[in-house]
Amino acid sequence: MSHDGTVPPSPGLPRHSTISQVAVHTPSGRQTGEEIEDDIRARNPGIRLIPGLLRQMYGFEERRVAPAGTWPSDLAAVAGRRALDRAGLGPDAVDLLVFASASEDVEEPATAHIVAHKLGVTAPVFDVQNACNGVLNAVEVADALIRTGRYDRVLITTGELGSALSRLPARHQDELAALLPAYTLGDLGAALLLEASDHPGVLGATFHANSAGWRAATVTNPYFTPRFGAQSARFDSHALAASFTGMEGAAFDALHAIGRTTGDIHLCCVHQASVPFTHAILEALGVPAERAVSTFPRYGNVATATLPLQLAEAERRGMLRPGDLVALFGLASGASFGMLLMAWHPSGTPKPPAQRTREHTTSLVP
Known about the structure:
Layout: E1 16-25, E2 29-32, H1 33-43, H2 53-58, E3 62-65, H3 72-87, E4 96-99, H4 111-119, E5 125-127, H5 134-147, E6 153-161, H6 173-179, E7 187-197, E8 202-209, E9 217-219, E10 233-235, H7 237-242, H8 248-257, E11 267-270, H9 275-285, H10 296-299, H11 306-316, E12 325-332, E13 336-343
Parallel strand pairs: 4-5, 4-6, 11-12
Antiparallel strand pairs: 1-7, 2-3, 6-7, 8-13, 9-10, 12-13
Helix pairs in contact: 3-4
Protein name: 3-oxoacyl-ACP synthase III family protein
Keywords: Acyltransferase, Cytoplasm, Membrane, Transferase, Transmembrane, Transmembrane helix
């Protein structure tokens, strides 16, 4: 189907979507926790900072840092090109391009236009933004559009330049405390390719919000700062964690509704804001650590790119096989929670789930 969306789906055939490709672009620059702490002291004279604090508090070791002059669209475009190349597709094969990032090139137009221009994509585009849950929400939207026959192939891209927040000043210890989690933010590009399929890939999802918790983590808009004063980033880790209380129950309910439990999951990808936070989420879900991929210590918090990064790492390590059941758990400031369940089909022409274990013998989606 062309990307104008005018051709309806074939009558009588079930229509599903599947994530057929995942790709990441990792900048070559590295910055250790100790180097970040040295930079904080140099930029903010008079600030007292305990050596090794980022490791002690968050389990942070290092992050990737993009070269000077890099834009979020640059990171997203490289990852997007890689996903298309892996699928053997050109830019004209994309029916819709979505940019879903907490970082953006400009306030207007949508950064998706810039990514599309760099890729040579002429399809419709738009941005999706919901803090660290942007990519998960973009998958939700793309799945719905593919299921209704509007598009056949959607390229979701993201480019995070979280390290830029490290340049914000900390004039006193209280400001440093409010900004401290931002120093663990890293840079990364990622892309997911969703395609129409006769076999279920995306099996189900649930999304919830506790919008009363929005004050727990804020980054001001540089164009509109009167309400908060100067441009700033403020994170209250305790308040943010508390705003997610009870949301894990929604995940259990969603799994139960389609006849699954966390014990059926081969790979669990969770948003990783720190090592203790990741451990707490896995424990609350009842998922063993060996069914997850730890990325935070080496990459830091890469916001919307966190879930695609874990998928790519799991694939690289041989942890995923066709038909494996994968759960993506997104948690974002606001607060919002999302859980998406999928069968892993790492190709453009997915096949029915392999009968590796008993739970793969039947489809989850009627």
